[in-house]
Design a protein that fits this description.
There is one protein chain. The chain is α+β, with helices and mostly antiparallel strands. The protein folds into 2 domains: about 100 residues, RimP-like superfamily, N-terminal (GMP Synthetase, Chain A, domain 3); about 60 residues, SH3 type barrels (Roll), CATH 2.30.30. Strands 7-6-5-4-8 form a 5-stranded antiparallel β-sheet. The protein has a 3-stranded mixed β-sheet with strand order 1-2-3. Strand 6 and strand 7 form a beta hairpin. Helix 2 packs across helix 3.
């Protein structure tokens, strides 16, 4: 008799998008996210919005595709609902949705992800948390004020020193919300 956990894991495995027949790999995930990005950006741009970030991950309730959008003045609930409905229809056409995943559309929030060079420039002077692929000066986690941004690096102020982090070494980066800054 299979345990509930094994049954759930089988069910979740069978819910991956069109590449479910293949062995799921990071490459497949990256390709899927790139395809979703190509479909989402024109939709956002047509409404004066920016596609901030896309996440695709397995969670206890199945696979979740999260789309973060923004626009000058901020995103409204109506904006999120509009993009969600439009994108659901587009995804139904381009992917086998019988092996479903849930779509969530929201604002990036105060701890928004930073994924493009433009994001780092836009939020210069703000506190960010950056995780790197490989250690830089013996560490992989940084929290400090974003300083100048060049073609190759992000300079971040950490208490008493400045660290240059190459863009190619950034694993993830997020703004730190005001409540966390003062901890």
């Amino acid at each position: 008799m299979e345990s509930q956990r094994k049954k759930r894991n089988k069910l979740i495995k069978n819910q991956e998008p069109e590449f479910a027949e293949e062995k799921f790999s990071l490459k497949n995930k990256e390709e899927f996210i790139a395809q979703v990005k190509d479909l989402t950006e024109p939709l956002c741009e047509a409404r004066g919005m920016e596609l901030v970030h896309i996440e695709y991950r397995g969670e206890s309730r199945g696979f979740i595709l999260r789309i973060y959008i923004d626009k000058p003045g901020g995103i409204t609930l109506d904006d999120c609902v509009f993009i969600n409905r439009q994108l659901n229809d587009i995804l139904d056409v381009h992917f086998d949705r019988s092996s479903s995943f849930s779509l969530e559309v929201s604002s990036p929030g105060p701890d928004r992800p930073l994924s493009k060079k433009l994001d780092f420039e836009k939020f210069r002077g703000k506190v960010a948390r950056i995780k790197t692929i490989a250690p830089i000066n013996g560490q992989k986690n940084f929290k400090g004020v974003l300083l100048n941004i060049s073609e190759e690096t992000i300079n971040i102020s950490l208490d008493d020193k400045t660290v240059a982090i190459p863009f190619k070494e950034v694993k993830s980066a997020r703004l730190v919300d005001n409540f966390e800054v003062h901890k």
